[in-house]
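Hello Y.,

Per our agreement to keep a running log of every chain we model this quarter, I'm adding this entry. I've kept the format consistent with earlier entries: sequence first, then predicted structure.
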Amino acid sequence: MPGSGVIANVIAVLVGTAAGLTFGRFISDRFRQIAFYALGLSTFSIGATMVIGGLIKADAAGSKYAVLVLVVSLVIGGLAGEAAGVEAGLERFGHWLRGVALRVPVFRAAAGEGEHQMVEGFVVASLLYCVGTMTILGSLQDGMGAPNLLYLKALLDGIASIALASALGIGVGFSVVPILIVQGGIALGAHALQPFLTTGVISSMSMVGGTLILAIGIDLMGIKRLPVGNLMPAVIVAGVLGAFFM
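Predicted structure for the entry above:
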C-alpha cells in the first residue's frame, strides 16, 4: 500500500522516542554528559559522511560546481533564514511544544528540559530523518507501491531515536511532523516529483543537509553553537541549484 513506509517510519520514531525517554530517566547527569559528547561525535560523523559522499558523487558525475553549490546554498539560505527569523521561530515552537507536553500527564516528566533542548532534539531528529538519499528515494518508491527502503529506514530511525531521546528528550518525538510532511508529501506526489528529483538535486540536498548535521554535532560536543535553524532554508536552495548545476 502506498504510504505504508511513511507510517512505519513515524511509528518507529515514536516507539524509539518512548524507549529513549524511559531509559533516559535512569541516567545521571555525569553519564548524560558523556552521552551528549558521544551523540555529538556520532552526529558530526554522519554529517561529514553525507558531505564527503555528496562531493564524491558529484565528482564521479563530472560536475565541477559541487563546492560552489554548497557555499552559495549556505550563504543564500542563511541570509534568507536570518531575514525570516527561523531560529527565533524554532525557539517559540520549542516553548509551545514544552507547554503542550506539560499539559499531558504522560509527557509531563519528560518535558522538564528547557525550550532550547526541546528545539535541539526536534531539529537534530528532523534533519537526520528528513534529509538524505534514503529519505527521498525511499519516499518516491513508497509512493509507487514499493516501501521496502522506507521499512529499512524506519528500523534505523527507530534505533537512532532511542539514543537521541535518551540524551535530548521529548523534542525528538515531534520530528514525526516533518517526517509526515516531507516523506508523506514526496510519497503522495511521487509520480509528479520523480522527474525533478534527479541525482544532482538529491546529492546537493544531502550535501548541504549533511553540513547542517555536522554543525549540530559541533553544538552537541559543546564546541560552538551555530544558528542551524537560520541555515535550514539552504537545503531548499541546494535542491534548486542542484537541478541546474549538478
